[in-house]
Amino acid sequence: MNSSNLPTVSVVVIAYNDAGLVGEAVSSALAQGPVVAEVIAVNDASSDGTARVLDELAAVHPRLKVVHRTENSGGCGTPRNDGIAAASGQYVLFLDSDDILPPGAADALVRTAEEHRAPVTVGAAVRRELPQHHDVPWMPGLHTPGEVIERPVDRPELVRDTLCVNKLYERAFLQEHGLRFPDGRFIYEDFVFTARVLAAAPRIAVTGDLVYVWHVRRSAAQVSISLDRKDVGNWRSRIEAHRTAAGILAEASPVLGSACRVKFLEYDLRMYLRELGRDPEYQAAWWTLTREYVDTFPEADIESAAAHARWIVSVLRATATPPADVERLTRLAAEPPRLLPPYATGPAGVPVWSEELPVELADLPVLPVGELPVTVDAEPAGRAAVRIRLHDLYGRLAEAGPVTAQLSFMPRAGGEAVLAQPVELYPDSSGGWVAVLPFRLADLAVTGRRQGLRRMQAWNVGVGVRCADGSSVFTSLRPRGRLLRRRALPSSRYGVLLAQPYRTGAGALALRLAPGAEGALYLVRNRLHRARAGRGAG
Q1: Which helix (H) or strand (E) holds 386?
Q2: Bond into 103 cis (ω within 30)
Q3: Nearest residue to 100 (alpha-carbon basis) of 36, 168, 23
Q4: pLDDT band for position 535 (50/70/90)?
Q5: Are β-strands 120-129 and 91-96 bridged in parallel, bridged antiparallel, or unpaired?
Q6: How far apart are CA 490 and CA 212, in angstroms?
Q7: Rounded Cα gap, residues 313 and 73, in angstroms
Q8: Contact in structure between 195 and 249 (CB atoms under 8 Å)
Q9: Which DSSP category does 89 fall into?
Q10: Buried (b) or exposed (e) across 224-239, using 16+ Cβ within 10 A?
């Protein structure tokens, strides 16, 4: 079957005050070829030049139809519903005005849908951080290319993929079940729509092709609704959307409802907790909202969550206000999770959160070593090495017998990790282990260039620990002392190599490398840009 014989797709593009970007989105949809019979752009009563941009494009491209709303809906659901109502293609695909469809996306989705007679087809998506072009796969490993799921209840973990834009929907299926988005200013409308789709129990087919590029512009003057987390209202909206979605799924299948609540504990709760910040008023409001919602969860769902999520819930339940060591909790919510010292014990040596909050850390004594939230501190040891200290965790690492540690540099823009040589660990007087790990920044910069990293390179820094019993654990590093000082190093290859170690939002060590004068200038400009964005956000 060639492209001209494929069933047709209606691409629904929604736009509000996005004159500078909507043209690229529409063009990416039109570029899909004849499989896209029409692109329906819904202008949600924009006050900038969005309407003009769309009308000018429609005058040139007969496949583009523009719907102008006279009143702004306040959200994404209503304009998407308008697009569904205006669609005439056999299938519907959604696209936001600041994102793009990669070449061949519609073809790949339709071919898979037709091959498996699936009302819903899903493909791969990436979050592309701009301007760095750092691609982060969305829910990697959740979907298996070529897989066909006869009923969502057969794969309850599907509730974790809440996006609507990485999926193709048969229009007759949407019509038959009356599937629409929540109207008005309803944030996280995807949650509810996706829940309604899964509750309708469609066959779902999976293609391995990349079908959606989600652009993330954190420094934009107006960030997307889902990234606008400056006040607790965003978290309240997410909770309400999740509550609605969980109710829809539970009514259709108790299994799906339970999976949705477990997903909230393991994903949503941890994501927002690690971004909690230091504002006491925000922390207190967030804490109250979260406790009240989690208290509605069946105990069985909490027990089904991963250990780290259960410990967070236990601390939440133990105190009506954020504890003094709430930052420790944010580090436990990070990925990978880290439980910072000190480590307290209760009766009979049972691991507990702290002396002030003696909440039992259930199952910690039996967790596999690879799942332990270990902490590794790092401080400078000369110009080309770091001294690390691996903290024991209630005797669990001592049982495994740490032998070696190995630095790992992972490009934040995606790509293969660069590994240093393993170094032997030695016990220290504190009950942990220490080692001095050498590295060569010039070699790292060369490798980055070979991987296509130009100008400024950004690397996450981690450490892998191998134990005598055959187990191993990998985690990030906690920077200590003067490790975060910027350095300008002479380089025979680049003339100068500027190195800027920094602490990520999750408190982990990362590194920016700028080879040569051009790279150094780019790093300085990037730093000034982030500083200005930070002042503007404040």
Answers
A1: strand 385-390
A2: no
A3: 23
A4: very low
A5: unpaired
A6: 42
A7: 36
A8: yes
A9: S
A10: bbeeebeebebbebbb
**Total-model pTM:** 0.90
151-154 — which CB contacts under 8 Å span 24+ positions? Answer: 151/201, 151/203, 152/198, 152/201, 152/202, 152/204, 152/253, 152/256, 153/201, 153/253, 153/255, 153/256
250-295 confidence digits (pLDDT tens): 999 999 999 999 999 999 999 999 999 889 999 999 999 999 999 9
CB contact set of 298 (below 8 Å; sequence gap of 6+)? 258, 261
- Does position 228 have pLDDT exceeding 60, yes or no? no
- Identify whether the C-beta of residue 326 lies closer than 8 Å to the C-beta of residue 360: no
User: Do residues 126 and 135 make contact, with C-beta atoms less than 8 angstroms apart?
Assistant: yes
Q: pLDDT of 118-149, one tens digit each?
A: 999 999 999 887 776 777 889 999 999 999 99
Element housing 189 (H / E): helix 189-199
Task: Give per-residue pLDDT as tens, 500-531.
Answer: 999 998 899 999 998 866 655 555 555 555 54
338, 475 contact by CB (below 8 A) = yes
- CA–CA separation, 159 and 126 (whole Å): 18
Rounded CA separation 339/271 (Å): 16
Q: Which of 64, 63, 58, 96 is nearest to 80 (CA)?
A: 96
Type of residue at 137: P
Supply the angle between the helices 77-86 and 189-199 in degrees, to the nearest 10.
50
Instruction: Indicate the SS3 state at residue 303.
Output: helix
Task: Give me 357's structure tokens.
Answer: 């909050």
96 close to 11: Cβ distance less than 8 angstroms: no
Chain position carrying tokens 């956000």? 537
Lowest mean pLDDT among 106-120, 160-174, 359-373, 440-454: 440-454
**DSSP readout, 250-269?**
HHH-HHHHHHHHHHIIIIIH
Strands 120-129 and 423-424: unpaired
Read off the tokens for 392.
């024991």
Reported for 413-422, long-range contacts at CB under 8 A and 24+ positions apart, including other chains, are 413/132, 413/133, 413/134, 413/135, 413/453, 413/458, 414/134, 414/135, 414/136, 415/451, 415/452, 415/453, 416/451, 418/444, 418/447, 418/459, 422/466
CB 19 within 8 Å of CB 53: yes
Domain boundaries, the chain: 3-227, 261-366, 370-537
In a 3-state reduction of DSSP, which class is residue 356? coil
What is the Cα gyration radius of the chain?
25
Non-local CB neighbours of 55 within 8 Å, separated by 6+ positions: 66
Q: Which fold has domain 3-227?
A: Spore Coat Polysaccharide Biosynthesis Protein SpsA; Chain A (3.90.550)
Residue 362 near residue 368 (C-beta atoms within 8 A): no
Token pair belonging to 83: 């697009």
